[in-house]
Design a protein that fits this description.
It contains 25 helices and 29 strands. By secondary structure, the chain is α/β, with parallel strands linked by helices. The chain has a four-stranded antiparallel sheet. A four-stranded mixed sheet has the order 10-11-9-12. It has a four-stranded mixed sheet with strand order 27-26-29-28, covered by helices on one side.
Length: 873
C-alpha cells in the first residue's frame, strides 16, 4: 500500500482522480438499472458564461445531493447542459464583430451569415464553463450533456409552440413591453436591472384649451415624450382638479402643429398619485406601462415618438426628429424654455430600468409580440400549496403562490436572430403554424422565442421527450432542483406548468433556493466592484475540496452569504488536518477495512468516539432531510477536528506507542471503523481527498463513490466507559479555560495540580492522558489546596501554579486595567437600564442585551478580584 505524502497536494490528486472517474464512466446513468432512480438537472448556465462563486455554491450543492444518492445505492442521473442565452450570446458576438471591424450592425452581415458567426463562436468558446465545472469535481453524466439549440431539443421547443398555438393559448397582440434600443428586442423583466439614477424633475405648464390664460403645472422626468402625450390625467378625488375632468388642454410640443392637433382631453383616473409632483399626470400611452393602462381605460390614441433604435420619430416634431432620446430630452427642455412654459428644474433620484446585456436604459414601447396564456396554472399553484412539491426555505412558497395568483400573459417573442425561430408562416393574409417550411411562397416570422421558452422544458426535453424513453420512465419526475430565488417565476414556476401540461405531473419533488453571495460590506459580488474572486484561482490556492467545504460552511439555508476568503483557507486547513490524521493512522500499520471495535478491549476514549459518531450520523440524517448543508458541513468539521483529531488521536498515542497495550487493537479498530465511516460522510462535500484517503489507506479496494452510506449504530459501545472519557475531556477543557484567563499557552514547563474528588481515584495513565490533552508537562496529585487559581472539574479541583510563569507586578497591572474596563462596562449598561427614557424607547431584546452585558461584567469583576488575591504580597 503506498504511503501518504507528508502534505496533501490537491493539484496532484484532483485532475488524476477526475480523469479516472470519467474514463471509467462512473457518472453514466443506466436507465435500465434496478436501483431506485435519483435525478437532478443542472440549471443550464449561459453558453457565454464563466464560473462564478454563485455557480460554485449551486453546483456543489447539486454534487453533494448526487454523490450522497450514489452512496445510498441509487442510480443517479445528474444531467448537465448549457443554455443558448439568446440576447446574451448575440450581444457578445455582435460586440466582438464590431470590435474586429467586421460590422457596424448585424444587418451588415444578414441573418444567415450572422448566425454562422455565432455558431463558430459557440464551438470555440461555448464549453468554457463546462470545463470549469469539471475542475470543481461536478459528477455529471457528461455523455448526456445537452444544449438548448441541439436539433432534438429545438424540435421539442417547436412542437410545444405549435401545440400551444393550436390550443389557442399562444396569440399575437400589440402590448407594452420592455424594449432594448441597442439590441432592438423586447426583454423580459428578468433581463432588466434597476439602477438608481440622479437626474432632474422638470416642471412645465400646459394651457387649458378654452382658457389659454389658465395653466396646469406638470412634473416629469421625460420631457422628450411630451409630443406623445394624448391626455392629461387627474385623480377624481383631488379637489384641486376634479372640476377640470372632461375639459381639454393644449399639449405644448411640437409647437409647430396647429392647435387642433395639440388639443388633448383631461381625464379622471384613480391611478393618479395625488402626492407625486403637482398631482397632474401627462399620459403617454405608447411609452409608459401605467400610461398605456390609462389609455386603454379611456380609449386614448397612442403616438409613437421614439422608434426601435431609441431615436425620435417625425411625430416628435422637426426640432426633435432623428435625435437620440437623451439628446432629445435637452432639446425638449429648451423648447419649453423658449415657449415660456418651463417653470423649474430640480434634482431628482429615481430607479431606472437598464438592459442587463446592453447596459442602456430600456424603453417602454408598444410592440406587436407573441404572448402565451399559461397552461396548467391551477395544478401548478395547488401542488406547492398542498406541500406535494416542497420549497426550501419554505418562505418562498408564499412568494410563488402570490405570483401564481396574479399571472400575466407571457411575452414569448424576441426580435433577435439567435434562438428558436417562431414556427409561424405567412402568405398574404394567410397564417400557418407548423414546424416544417410550407413552401417557398411562405415567409417565416422573423422573431425568435424568449430563451425561457426553451428552458421551461428542460426537465423532460433533456430526457428524450416526446418519445417515451427509458430515461423518462426512470428519472422523471426528477428528485431535486437547486437554483436561485431570483428565477422562481421565470424558470421554476414555468417548468412546473410545462411538466403538468406535457407529462401530467410535477417535474421535481423539491426545490432548494440558494442565497446570494455578498462581500464583507454586504455588496453583491461583481467584476465592476473588483470584489468577485475567480473560482479557478481559489481552486489553485485552496484545492477544489477546500473551496467547496469552506463555502458550504458559510452558506446557511436560503440566507445571503458573506464571502470571506479566510473560510476557504479554513476549508484547506481542514483537508490538511484530515490528511495528517490519516497519515498518522497509516504510520501505525495497515488499516483494516472490516475493522470491528466490538471484537476488542477498548479504552473509554474509543467508546466515547463511537458514541459521538453515532450522534453525528443521526444528526446528519436529520439535517439532510431538511437540506441544512452548512450545518452538515459544520457538524462534520466539529467531529473530525475536535472529536477525532484533538481528542481521540491525542489519547490514542498511548496505545499506539505501546505494542503490548491490551487496548491497542481496539484503538486501531476504532480508528479504522470511524475513518471508514467519516470518509463516506465527508465524500459528498470533499470528493477528491476522501477518494485518495479511502484507496491509499486500503479502507476499500474500489472507489468510495459507490461504497454504502453508513447505517446508524452498527455496533454497540460501553456507555459507562464513554462517560469516563467525557469526564476526562471536560476536565482538560476546564484546565485550558483556566490557563486562558491568564493568557498562557501550554508548555512542557507548566504543570497542573489536581485535588481529586472523593468519587475519583486517578491512575498514572489518567494523569498522563490529561497532561497530553492540556498540552503541559505534567498533572500531579495534591492532598491540600495550594495557593493557586482553581477551577472545578469532573475529576476534582484543578489548580494552576503560576510561579515562574507570570511577573506578579505586570499581572497586578493587567488585572487592575481589566477590572476598570469591566466596571466601566457595568456602569454604562446600568445607566441605560436606569434611564426611563432610554428604557421606554428600546425594544425588549435591546433591554435584555443590556442586562446580559451588565451581569457578565459583574461576574467578570468577581472573577478578576479573586485572581487579584493571588498576587497580593
Amino acid at each position: 500500500m503506498p504511503e501518504l505524502a507528508p502534505a496533501y497536494e490537491p493539484a496532484q490528486v484532483e485532475d488524476r482522480l477526475y480523469r479516472q472517474w470519467n474514463e471509467r464512466g462512473d457518472y453514466r446513468a443506466n436507465p435500465d438499472s434496478k436501483k431506485p432512480g435519483y435525478a437532478i438537472v443542472i440549471p443550464p448556465p449561459n453558453v457565454t458564461g464563466i464560473l462564478t462563486l454563485g455557480h460554485v455554491l449551486n453546483n456543489t450543492i447539486q454534487d453533494i445531493l448526487a454523490r450522497r444518492a450514489r452512496l445510498l445505492g441509487c442510480e443517479v442521473l445528474w444531467l448537465p447542459g448549457t443554455d443558448h442565452a439568446g440576447i446574451a450570446t448575440q450581444t457578445v458576438v455582435e460586440r466582438t464583430l464590431k470590435k474586429e471591424g467586421k460590422i457596424r450592425h448585424r444587418d451588415d452581415l444578414g441573418r444567415e451569415a450572422f448566425l454562422k458567426e455565432i455558431w463558430q463562436w459557440k464551438e470555440k468558446h461555448g464549453g468554457i464553463i463546462i470545463q470549469q465545472l469539471k475542475k470543481l469535481g461536478a459528477s455529471c453524466d457528461w455523455s448526456r450533456e445537452r444544449f438548448t439549440m441541439d436539433p432534438a431539443y429545438s424540435a421539442c421547443v417547436q412542437q410545444v409552440f405549435v401545440d400551444l398555438f393550436q390550443k389557442k393559448l399562444i396569440y399575437r397582440g400589440r402590448r407594452m413591453v420592455n424594449w432594448c434600443p441597442v439590441s432592438r428586442t423586447a426583454l423580459s423583466d428578468e433581463e432588466v436591472v434597476m439602477k438608481e439614477q440622479k437626474g432632474l424633475l422638470y416642471h412645465f405648464r400646459v394651457p387649458l384649451a378654452d382658457s389659454p390664460e389658465q395653466f396646469l403645472t406638470i412634473a416629469t422626468t421625460r420631457p422628450e415624450t411630451i409630443p406623445g402625450d394624448t391626455a392629461l390625467a387627474v385623480n377624481p378625488k383631488d379637489p384641486r382638479y376634479s372640476a377640470l375632468i372632461g375639459k381639454f388642454a393644449l399639449r405644448p410640443l411640437p409647437p409647430e402643429l396647429p392647435e387642433a392637433q395639440r388639443r388633448i382631453p383631461i381625464v379622471g383616473d384613480d391611478h393618479v398619485d395625488l402626492t407625486f409632483g403637482t398631482g397632474v399626470l401627462k399620459v403617454t400611452p405608447a411609452h409608459d406601462p401605467a400610461d398605456f393602462a390609462i389609455g386603454q381605460r379611456h380609449q386614448l390614441p397612442s403616438l409613437e415618438v421614439i422608434d426601435e433604435s431609441g431615436l425620435m420619430t417625425s411625430l416628435a416634431g422637426t426640432a426633435l426628429a432623428g435625435l437620440e432620446r437623451s439628446k432629445a430630452r435637452l432639446a425638449a427642455v429648451e423648447q419649453l424654455r423658449e415657449l415660456g412654459l418651463l417653470e423649474k428644474e430640480e434634482p431628482y433620484t429615481n430607479q431606472v430600468g437598464f438592459s442587463e446585456r446592453a447596459d442602456v436604459p430600456i424603453e417602454p414601447r408598444l410592440s406587436e409580440q407573441w404572448f402565451l396564456r399559461y397552461p396548467s396554472a391551477e395544478k401548478s399553484r395547488s401542488v406547492v400549496a398542498s406541500g406535494q412539491l416542497r420549497f426550501s426555505p419554505d418562505r418562498w412558497s408564499k412568494v410563488y403562490d402570490h405570483w401564481m395568483e396574479n399571472l400575466q400573459d407571457w411575452c414569448i417573442s424576441r426580435q433577435l436572430w439567435w434562438g428558436h425561430r417562431i414556427p409561424v408562416w405567412y402568405r398574404g393574409d394567410e397564417t400557418l403554424c407548423q414546424i416544417e417550411s410550407p413552401g417557398k411562397d411562405w415567409t417565416q416570422d422573423p422573431d425568435v422565442l424568449d430563451t425561457w421558452f426553451s428552458s421551461w422544458l428542460w426537465p423532460f426535453a433533456t430526457l428524450g421527450w416526446p418519445a417515451k424513453t427509458a430515461e423518462l420512465k426512470k428519472f422523471y419526475p426528477t428528485s431535486d432542483l437547486v437554483t436561485g430565488p431570483d428565477i422562481i417565476f421565470f424558470w421554476v414556476a414555468r417548468m412546473i406548468m410545462a411538466g403538468f401540461e406535457y407529462l401530467g405531473e410535477l417535474p421535481f419533488r423539491h426545490v432548494y433556493f440558494t442565497g446570494l453571495i455578498r462581500d464583507g460590506k454586504g455588496r453583491k459580488l461583481s467584476k465592476s466592484l473588483g470584489n468577485s474572486p475567480d473560482p479557478l484561482d481559489l481552486i489553485a490556492k485552496f484545492g477544489a475540496d477546500g473551496l467547496r467545504f469552506g463555502l458550504l460552511r458559510i452558506a446557511p439555508q436560503g440566507s445571503d452569504i458573506r464571502y470571506d476568503e479566510k473560510q476557504m483557507e479554513e476549508g484547506r486547513n481542514f483537508a490538511n488536518k484530515l490528511w495528517n490524521a490519516c497519515r498518522f493512522r497509516q504510520q501505525q500499520g495497515p488499516s483494516d477495512p472490516l475493522a470491528n471495535p466490538a471484537l476488542h478491549p477498548r479504552t473509554p476514549f474509543s467508546d466515547y468516539l463511537l458514541s459521538q459518531l453515532d450522534l453525528l450520523e443521526r444528526e446528519l440524517q436529520r439535517l439532510y432531510a431538511t437540506y441544512e448543508f452548512s450545518q452538515i458541513a459544520q457538524s462534520l468539521y466539529n467531529f473530525v477536528w475536535n472529536e477525532f483529531c484533538a481528542r481521540f488521536i491525542e489519547t490514542a498515542k498511548a496505545d499506539f506507542s505501546n505494542p503490548d497495550s491490551p487496548t491497542r487493537a481496539g484503538t486501531l479498530a476504532t480508528a479504522d471503523y470511524v475513518l471508514s465511516r467519516v470518509l463516506r460522510l465527508l465524500h459528498p462535500f470533499m470528493p477528491f481527498i476522501t477518494e485518495e484517503l479511502w484507496l491509499t489507506l486500503g479502507l476499500g479496494q474500489e472507489t468510495i463513490q459507490f461504497a454504502n452510506w453508513p447505517i446508524e449504530k452498527e455496533i454497540q459501545w460501553d456507555q459507562a466507559q464513554a462517560k469516563l472519557a467525557e469526564s476526562c475531556y471536560a476536565t482538560a477543557e476546564a484546565g485550558r479555560r483556566l490557563r486562558g484567563e491568564f493568557g498562557l499557552s501550554g508548555s512542557a514547563k507548566m504543570k497542573f495540580l489536581l485535588l481529586p474528588s472523593a468519587s475519583f481515584t486517578p491512575s498514572p495513565d489518567d494523569l498522563r492522558t490529561l497532561a497530553k490533552l492540556l498540552q503541559v508537562g505534567s498533572v500531579e496529585i495534591t492532598s491540600a489546596p495550594p495557593k493557586a487559581p482553581l477551577i472545578p472539574t469532573p475529576y476534582g479541583d484543578l489548580y494552576l501554579p503560576l510561579e515562574g510563569l507570570l511577573d506578579p507586578a505586570k499581572e497586578r497591572t493587567r488585572l487592575e486595567k481589566e477590572i476598570s474596563l469591566a466596571e466601566a462596562s457595568r456602569a454604562r449598561e446600568a445607566a441605560k437600564l436606569a434611564d426611563p427614557k432610554m428604557a421606554a424607547k428600546a425594544p425588549p431584546e435591546k433591554i435584555a442585551e443590556w442586562r446580559r452585558i451588565e451581569k457578565e461584567a459583574s461576574e467578570q469583576i468577581v472573577r478578576l478580584r479573586e485572581q487579584q488575591k493571588l498576587f497580593t504580597t
